[in-house]
Amino acid sequence: MTGRVVAAHRLAGSAFRLAGIYAGSAGVVGSWAAVRGKSPWAGIHLFLAGTVLLVISGAAPLFVITWAASRPPRPEVAAAQRWSLALGVGMVVVGVEAGWETALVAGGVSVVSGLCLLGYMLVASIRRSLLRRFDLSTRFYLLALAGGMVGVTVGILLALGVFESTYLRVRTVHLHLNLVGLVGLTIFGTLPTFLPTLAHHRMVSGVEARVAWWAAAASVAAMVGGLVGGFEMVGWGTLGVAAAGAAIVTGILLRLGSRVVRNGLPPMQVLAGLVWLWGWLVVDGSGLITGRPTPVFGRATVAVVVAGVGQILLGSLTYLVPVVAGRGAVGVSKGRPGVALAAANLAGLGLVLGWDWAWFLVGIWVWDFVDRVGRALIGRTEAHL
Predict the structure, then answer these.
(1) CB 171 within 8 A of CB 164
(2) CA 158 from chain center: how many Å?
(3) What angle do CA 127, 179, 300 make, to 5 degrees?
(4) Residue-wise DSSP of 280-299
(5) What is the mean pLDDT of residues 314-342?
(6) Distance of alpha carbon 107 from alpha carbon 153, whole angstroms
(7) pLDDT tens across 259-273, in order?
(8) Which residue from 112, 189, 222, 296 has the least number of CB within 10 angstroms?
């Protein structure tokens, strides 16, 4: 393994460990809120802004370095990026929950700085790359980061009471720029390379992926325009991202066929999560256009965060964590895939329907993930004794 790949794995591993801390915090805070019948705001933000963005902070540079044959960023820059993001998310949540404006503003600036640094790292790496096959995915990442920076900034101003007269509209823009723009476009931009990798196949994409990027760019602009144009513009932007994602996934499936799901749990969970995400985008976007918006922190949003983004995240990490740890994913992703798939998707259905025991199913699913990854890491330790 070359030095640049080792460095990329170390960078990703550091970010994944911080993401794991945030995942545990999100689970505890979210469960406590559910027991008390409180808003899931804090748990959702700890998971999306903490866990998911820290995974992106580790995975995006890893993909650029390995698939574009580029040099890794300087360790101190990568460390500053992930800690700026990690500490910023914590300060934002504490600031909002405690009504501490200083922590809220400082945390928001720190999160935006972390996103800026990630963009800088990606641009610097792609400029030094020897291969151009990951350029399109990097463009998706940069577009997602731009949307996320606007979304975070709007969220901080919203929490400070700047948009009192247009609170509901601005909160909708904030949610969509972060969940649809930042998280959704990062996922869709990674698929042309990552999904074939899970199927043990080379990268597949065509003109549909380039068209999808332009559709996504127009969609982000529409969502930002919702600050003055209203819910309808946010809805059209959401449907635009749904169309872009559908085009990318359809192109991949037409080229790979059944090979996508022949290699165990990770591709199955990624595809299942994509169904949840795409379905929510269509329902939510249509509702915004027709005047029946989905509640911002309602059951459907919680379900798509857990069964949609969560499945894509854990399905990807089931493959990535053993690889980054030097163990390899062979064998870890196989065996009892039905347990994780059933638990995750029934939990999503239960969250939509308001089942009190849906979180028990989430627990079974997370246990399956921890068991798989734990066996891989223990195996790695034993191999070095």
Answers:
(1) no
(2) 23
(3) 155
(4) HHHHHHHHHHHT-PPPTTSH
(5) 76
(6) 11
(7) 776 767 888 899 999
(8) 296
